[in-house]
Amino acid sequence: MAEQNRTTLKSYFETGDTPTQAQFEDLIDSVPNISDSSVSNTEFSYLNGVTSAIQTQINAKQDELTGLTASVTELNYSDGVTSSIQTQLDGKLTDVVEDTTPQLGGNLDLNGNNIGDATAADLTKLNEVTATSTELNYVDGVTSAIQTQIDGKLANVVDDTTPQLGGNLDLNSNDITGTGNIDITGSVTVSGEFLGDLDGAVFVAVYNNTASTINKGDAVYLTGGNNGDKPHVDLADSSDANKMPALGIVKEDINPSSEGQVAVSGKINFSSHGFTAGANLYVNGLGALQETAPTGEGNLIQKIGKVVSPNIILVQGAFRSNATPNLNNGNIFIGNASNQTSTTAFAISLDTSPQLGGDLDVNGNDITGNPAIDGRRAIITEATEERTLALEDAGDFIITTSSDATTVTIPRNDDVAFTTGTEIDFIQKGAGVLTITADADVTLNGVETGSTAITAQWGGATIKKIDTDEWIIVGKINDVA
Fold it and tell me: 202-315 in CATH: which number?
């Protein structure tokens, strides 16, 4: 018989087991029996909620009590305290004089004492006050001598030599008049009309959408993009039509991805711009300005400003390039040696060495006079025995050199469309006889498919087209048959 743990006891009573007498005795000895103890059931219930050794907790409390020097009565004074006593004491006054802004929470009872050092307060002086209680209440909130404050106020706005508004100024249908100037460093927004003269520049707010700084004095064009209501700009270029015309001249440096201003007209001030006073300024290259118009047909010309002084440029002509001036009656614009526009009276005689770029159609008119024709007809040497005329032979001088007989054929108009009036000359230089014959359906001197030969060596002839398929031949020839 002995006390056993729970695991051992449970093993005695597993399904199918038959516990022995000794095992039952172990079970009885192992289970506590209140009747065997002097501790009541109520006393056992006091153990409910205990989380650690009771004796250890009692010893800890005993140590705390041992360190107390206050009496039980003194300890009772702390009843009702809700926070640190010392903190609350530190927040209280030792003397009324420590309160620099004292206020009464109720009526002040002097209790036979004085207010001040000498005498008690003479409240009878209140009888000498003639102001009503309403008037006395007007001093409520006064923080210093009333007269001093009144003396420090303005009798009129004109007394303030540096006035500043504390809010919006409402003119209330009145005007701002006077002879002085109004200097405004910020922006002015006018919703109605602006009537009067302007002395200064007109600026457009823009946005630099490039990766580079656009410098003061650069000429810029609109790229087509925008940042809100700010159009994108980049450097204008007189040699690139896609980057012209220039909008205007940059007022101050504009950093990448930043806003700035461009003067489209009026004055821009510089510490020193480096241009000649009185000179005209033209867009040239990437954003650059120069005093002469750019040359060459690849450049657009835009006069954008005028130099007023070493420090001032007057912007003019912005957003307009390659405009021509008024032209006198009878004059034309014509390019000069610099590929720039110049004017002159219209006359063909201006060209002392004219050249046609194509055929000259006189449109039924005549070329009159007795002009000298300074030119050379092409000379064609023919050494073969057969040749059919081609368009490039028109106007040629054909020389045959063969010692054998040579035949030249005039083709049908459907095959080779010579212009009516075409002439071709022939010379028989070689010993071989030169025969000129017309193709089928072509007449030569009125003979269809006619043919003739040069009469002798060094003899010659000329053929001329007089109609669609009709030619004539003249010269040292035999009869056409």
Answer: 2.40.300
